[in-house]
């Protein structure tokens, strides 16, 4: 049984990570907005809805 050797070309890629500060800033603003809305709704529930029960 003969073993066939193949010469397979391997492509090497160099990947550079780009840390774009504008994308990071946008994500921080987005999640900060989510937190503000969440705590606003929570405050509304505690102040106005919960005392009625």
Summarize this, please?
Keywords: Membrane, Transmembrane, Transmembrane helix. The protein is an all-alpha fold.
Produce the secondary structure layout.
Blueprint: H1 21-49
Transmembrane segments: 31-50
Keywords: Membrane, Transmembrane, Transmembrane helix
Please describe what this structure looks like.
- Keywords: Membrane, Transmembrane, Transmembrane helix.
- With about 55 residues, the chain is mostly helical.
- The protein has a domain at about 20-50.
- The protein is about 55% helix and about 0% strand.
- The protein is built from 1 helix and no strands.
- The longest helix is centred in the middle third of the chain and has 29 residues, at about 20-50.
- The model has no long low-confidence stretch (mean pLDDT about 85).
Provide keyphrases for this structure:
single chain; 53 residues; mainly alpha; 55% helix; elongated
Tell the overall outline. elongated
Distance separating the two termini:
83 Å
- How many helical elements? 1
- What structural category do the secondary elements indicate? mainly alpha
Number of DSSP strand runs? 0
H-E order: H
- CA radius of gyration is 28 Å
Overall helicity:
40-55%
Q: Major sheet: size, sense and barrel closure?
A: none
Q: What integer is the average pLDDT? A: 86
The percent range for strand residues is under 5%
Low-confidence stretches: none
Keywords: Membrane, Transmembrane, Transmembrane helix
Transmembrane segments: 31-50
């Amino acid at each position: 049984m003969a073993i066939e050797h193949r010469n397979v070309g391997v492509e090497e890629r160099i990947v550079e990570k780009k840390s774009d500060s504008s994308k990071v800033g946008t994500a921080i603003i987005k999640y900060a907005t989510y937190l503000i809305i969440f705590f606003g709704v929570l405050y509304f529930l505690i102040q106005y809805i919960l005392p009625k029960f």
